[in-house]
Structures are given as C-alpha cells and as structure tokens.
Amino acid sequence: MPSSSSRISGFYRLPPLERRRRLLELAELPAEGFAALDPGALTLDVADGMIENVIGVYALPFAVAVNFTVDGSDPLVPMVVEEASVVAAASNAARMVRPGGFRTTVSAPVMIGQIQVTEIDDVDAAAASLREHAEDLLGDARRLVPRLAERGGGPTALEVRPLTRGGPDGGVLVVHLHVDCRDAMGANLVNTLCEALAGKVAELAGGRPGLRILSNLTDGRTVAVRCSVDDALLASDAAAGPDVRAAIAAASRFAELDPYRAATHNKGIMNGVDAVLLATGQDWRAVEAGAHAFAARTGTYRPLAVWRERAGGLDGELAMPMAVGTVGGALHVHPGARLALDLAGAHTAERLAAIAGAAGLATNLAALRALATEGIQRGHMALHARGLARAAGATGELIDRVADELAATGEVRPDRAREVFARLCSSHVVKDSP
Ligand code: NAD
Hints:
Blueprint lengths: L15 H12 L16 H7 L11 E4 L11 E4 L5 H12 L5 E4 L3 E11 L2 H10 L1 H11 L1 H5 L3 E11 L6 E10 L6 H19 L2 E7 L7 E9 H4 L6 H17 L1 H21 L4 H12 L9 E6 L2 E9 L13 H10 L4 H24 L3 H16 L5 H13 L4 H14 L7
Antiparallel strand pairs: 1-2, 3-8, 4-6, 4-7, 5-6, 8-10, 9-10
The structure holds nicotinamide-adenine-dinucleotide.
The site of nicotinamide-adenine-dinucleotide has 22 residues, from helix 6 and helix 7.
C-alpha cells in the first residue's frame, strides 16, 4: 500500500461498498480482504478465547482516514471510533499537511520492566551491589530471550532507582530492566523477564521481592511527529490564513499554561491515536496511561503537542510514548486488526507508531483549527445531524436533505429529524433511493 497515493478525493461521498472496492485496488488486497470486518468475522469461539465470560462480540464503525503522507509514503489510516468527526477531522488535517507530510522520529522500541525490592536495611549498599552485578543480571535476562536477541532486540540496560530509605515498607528500591521488544508491544515479554530476575535481584539487594511488572510510562519508547502548514491551507471561508495561524498558536500557549486546557488538547490528540490503536488491535489503555504520565512528567500536566508560528505558516510538533506492536497480543487472533495493519502497510512497530502519532497530530490540528475559526460545534453538529437523519429512517440523498435542514435551523434533535424526514417523504419532492 505505501507506494500508492492516499489522496482520494471525495472518498467520503462514496457508498461503503465502493469505498471497499477502491481500497482493495489501492492496498492490493485479495478480493475477500474485507470479510475480516463483516459481522461474524470475529467468531464467538475466537472471542471466547480472548477474554473471560464472553457473551458476544461488539461492533464499532471501522473507517480509513485518507490524505496522509507519513515519512514520504502514503498510508491509509485505519480508524475504529464511535465519535462522529474524528475520521473527517484527521483526513482534512492530513490534506492541509500533505505538501510536506508528517515527519516522524521513532525511538528504539525499549520498554521498562520494574522489579521492586522492599524491606532493605541499607538502600545505598543494596543499590551499589545491584549496580556492580548489572552486567551479570543483564546476561541472565538475555539468556531468557534468545529469539528476541536473534531479532536484534533483548535486554539492553539495567538501572537502579532508590525510592525510600524507610517507612512502612522499610528501605525500597526499584530496578529498571530496559528491553528492546522489536515489533512486539512487549508487556508479556517484559513481565516474564521481571518475574524471572526478581529472586536474584532481591537477594543481591538484601530485601524482599515486591512487584515485578512493566511500567506503562514508556518514556524510552516514543514517537516525535513534526509537520508544517502554510497559511493558505489554514484559511477557512470565515477566517484568513494568518489569523487562523495566530489563533492556533495562541491555543497552544493556552494549553501550555493551563492543565485544564491541556487535558482537552491532549484528548484531541488521543482521538486520532486511539482510533488507530483500536483498529489495529493495540492495548490502547497502555498507550493512554503512558501518554498522560508523560504529559505530567515535569510535575505539571502539559500538552503533548505544541504549535508555533513561522513566517507564512505554522509548525506543529508532538512527542509522546507509543508502545505498539505488530506481533503478539490480540493480533494472533483478530482478523480485523490484521486487515487494519495491511491497509496501513504497517508491518513493523516503528511504522505503526509513526502512523498513530501522525493521526494524533492531525486530529489535534483539526480541533484547534475548528476552535480557532468557527468553534468546534458546527462541524460536530453537522455530522450529528447526519446520524439523526439516518436514525429517523433517511437513506440515500435524503440523509443530506434532512441533515442540512436540521443544521440550518440549529435544531439538531431526534424529534425534528423525524418531522423533517416525514415531511420530505410526503412532499414527493425527492425520490429516496432504496
Ligand atoms: P506476546 O506475549 O504475544 O509476545 C510477543 C511474541 O511475539 C513473543 O513470543 C515474541 O517472541 C514474538 N515475536 C515474533 N516476531 C517478533 C518480532 N519481530 N519482534 C518481537 N517479538 C516477536 O505479546 P507482548 O507484546 O509481549 O505483550 C502484549 C500484550 O500484553 C498485550 O495484549 C497487552 O494488552 C498485554 N499486557 C499489558 C500490560 C500493561 O500494559 N500493563 C500488562 C500485562 C499484559
């Protein structure tokens, strides 16, 4: 897929089956490719094997955001999300960014495993002993994951962090085992290593083994995304480009000053990130936890992306942890998630991290531009109106007719949708498509 263009003009106007046809061509998937998304593709049996107490499978809309260029090639960006406007927002922002594209820097996929040791009499001596035996412990860890080492990954470093010299748990320290997990998210890999090393670590520290599990603050596994948008592309019907640029930069500064605003700013980023993570079968709670811990790492909760004015345009930059995998986890069994990775052309964790990060910066840009110009509600309500029109029974071109009337009157409510639909049907002005 990456060699094709993701610029598909009017994609949103096509009926779903025609969208599938276009994507199959572009992504060079087999004709039956989309069967992975159809009802029943995730069988009750497979679902029952994934989690406990299964009573069914739960559907959400699966879409692709278009227009993305990420590091010089064009992914179709798979998104699963219940909120109207996320996919449209991502596609619109990606079109604005398209001339230079999103440029990313993805760190090595290094996860942190924590081994806590409690009830230590002399924390400083324990730390010194562990540091002295760091190579020895790393050697033990490497021997436990020979296949990961063959793939170029494996344990890379061991760090000792004294936490307290006394208190209810006595002296406490934590050992951080850094593990390059290659294309795996790595939670199970890292947890297994921590379990295996905990006894020896506690013995060397002269304390009791405490918790041993990965940290979701994966600040060693990050993505940075940059993009640049010219004023001409920022302009809207109602606002000139330089004004939009100034308003977005001001909105960024607001988020940098105020955690209440930063939380909403970051939610706009996670709209894009989570939608990609959900589509591709990732542990989105892990990425969410990491994102917000990272945002607060200085002691003040801060925006994950900032926007700065330059002559004639705007530069955006996002930096956040991104622990994702293209092997392991749910990917063993979930056909829709595997299709999403194929559509995105994301066959490495590095590429998936780049695409998810780009989606996050895109939805952030779209939200700030909407806020800076017409306010966020207009776009939201227009999409909401289409949903209400459908719920009222409209199909085909009647959806737009009903939605346009609701939006024009500002009465975007289910009862009004039913009234407008009934009137349009009875007026015979429009013949509804079947
Ligand atoms: P996993 O247990 O399926 O392990 C990945 C497997 O892929 C390994 O066996 C590895 O050998 C193999 N592999 C094949 N090709 C590889 C390649 N190119 N690079 C790396 N490994 C390769 O999955 P995982 O990634 O260790 O763990 C992810 C799962 O753990 C997720 O389902 C997540 O929800 C869950 N989890 C998360 C947390 C948390 O975030 N706090 C805690 C526990 C479990």
